[in-house]
Amino acid sequence: MLDVFPQKHRDTKAAKSFFHRLLGEDEVPEVMHTDKLWSYGATLRELPVLHRVEHVQVVSTTLATI
User: Fold this and answer.
1) What does residue 55 show for φ and ψ, rounded to 5 degrees?
2) Rounded to whole angstroms, how far apart are CA atoms 13 and 54?
3) What is the C-alpha separation between 61 and 28, in angstroms, rounded?
4) Confidence band (pLDDT; 50, 70, 90) for 21?
5) Which sequence spans correspond to the domains of the chain?
6) From CA 1, how far away is CA 25, in angstroms rounded?
7) Phi, psi of 34, deg, nearest 5
8) Distance of CA 64 to CAs 6, 16, 30, 33, 61, Å?
């Protein structure tokens, strides 16, 4: 599980790099929860290893609790 991973860019190239680092040699998860950034969905569609992963986009409620 990874909670936050700040990156300078938030495009498809950065998302691919993020998922490669996150997954590494580990097993592919059944479900991924991400924020609503469009590049995550684009990356999941482009990487064959992630085609069977359920992608759940969530809205952060952090600011609502402050």
Assistant:
1) -110, 115
2) 21
3) 27
4) confident
5) 12-65
6) 15
7) -135, 170
8) 21, 30, 29, 19, 5
pLDDT tens-place string over residues 33-64: 777 777 777 877 888 777 787 877 777 666 55
Element of type H or E holding 60: none
> What predicted TM-score, i.e. pTM, was given to this entire model?
0.50
Q: Which residue has the tokens 């590049």?
A: 39
Cβ atoms 29, 53 nearer than 8 A? yes
pLDDT at 7: 65
Which has the closest alpha carbon to 4: 60, 42, 46, 45?
A: 60
Six-digit token string for 38:
């469009």
End-to-end CA separation in angstroms for the chain = 24
